[in-house]
Amino acid sequence: MEPLTVVLVHWGQPERCLASVEAFCAQGLAVRMVVVDNGSSPEHLDRLRAGLPDTAELLEAHANLGFGPGANVGLRHWLAVHEGEWVAVAPHDALPDPGCLRRVMDAVRARPRAGLASADVGDGRVPVVDPYFGGITLPPDPSVGAADGWEACGYPHGTLMFARRSCLEAIGLFDERYFAYCEEADLGERARRAGWEVGLVRGARVRNPNLGGRSDVVDYLMLRNTLLLVRDHFGAYKAGVRTAIALIHLAKGLAVPSARPWIFAPAARVRALADHAQGRYGPPPESLATRPVAPR
To answer: Residue 135 pairs with which residues in a beta bridge?
Structure first.
């Protein structure tokens, strides 16, 4: 049986990436590690290269492409060069618990129409794509769920997701307009509309201990990309309603500091609204993009 290819997207944190590679290689399942470097410094790249096992492949993107575009570098390589029906994609600091990969693979192999899947991040919630709010999570329905842990959802969690080759060949790869955030919700919506099953596997735990990023970059990308997601999949009217909601939230946050969410960057939100209105997507503006953000 072909090993499971695991694509890790890396930027500037070689030790964390090497710890992730070690965790994936210790799963008791044959894996092929493909690490995509998103334009790290020469020093970081040298440390990464020196620490990778001989069996791992290192692909250099020579620029910070973002999570989705960086993952696409590895996915295109997998589709063109390697065999195997399934591929896993994760950021460079994802740490699967023992048995995680096997539990996911057992679940998806029992479902011929499973196209996308994700490991369990442990929050007990279900990812869904809302026609006004985009990619969100909701409490689970206790009556739903299979014995093997499979639970239908709207999109796979980006901390560790899995894709079937024939699904990607049918629907395409990550939409590179997103750069980071919401790209997996877009992929999940495209897969479900094409007739594929999307699910998460409870008990297949993965940790992302270094989750985070600059608040202004995160706020910008989350709002801009949510508007793009809603417009593309649910139409201009719902995107207009979502824009109005964003303006109300912005005004409320400015007027009532105690009502602000945990990430609130007013200038970044204004820029996100303007860029969406003018169709400017891809990397965040130079004024915000001083360092990349974690994909989840």
So the answer is: 129
Location of structure tokens 């706020």: 219
Q: b/e string for 225-259 if b means 16 or more Cβ within 10 A?
A: bbbbbbbebbeeebbeebbeebeebbeebeeeeee
- What pLDDT was estimated at residue 295? 38
Radius of gyration of the chain from its Cα atoms, rounded to whole angstroms = 19
Residues of the chain with pLDDT under 50: 290-296
Q: Are strands 150-152 and 197-207 parallel, antiparallel or unpaired?
A: antiparallel
Q: How far apart are CA 70 and CA 21, in angstroms?
A: 17
Q: Which CATH fold would you assign to the domain 4-207? A: Spore Coat Polysaccharide Biosynthesis Protein SpsA; Chain A (3.90.550)
Look up the pTM and report it. Answer: 0.93
Structural element, H or E, at residue 166? helix 165-171
Spatial distance between the Cα atoms of 158 and 180, rounded to a whole number of angstroms: 10
Q: Taking a C-beta distance cutoff of 8 angstroms, is the pair 92, 8 a contact?
A: yes
Residue 69: CA atoms inside 13 Å, Cβ hemisphere, count? Answer: 18
Query: Given this model, what pLDDT does residue 222 score?
Result: 96
Q: How far is CA 38 from CA 92, 157, 257, in A?
A: 11, 21, 37
- Whole-angstrom Cα distance, residue 98 to residue 255? 48
What is the rounded CA–CA span in Å between residue 23 and residue 194? 33
- What is the per-residue pLDDT for 213? 57
* Boundaries of every domain in the chain: 4-207, 215-277
Q: What is the pLDDT of residue 145?
A: 72
Q: Name the residue with tokens 């049918």.
A: 170
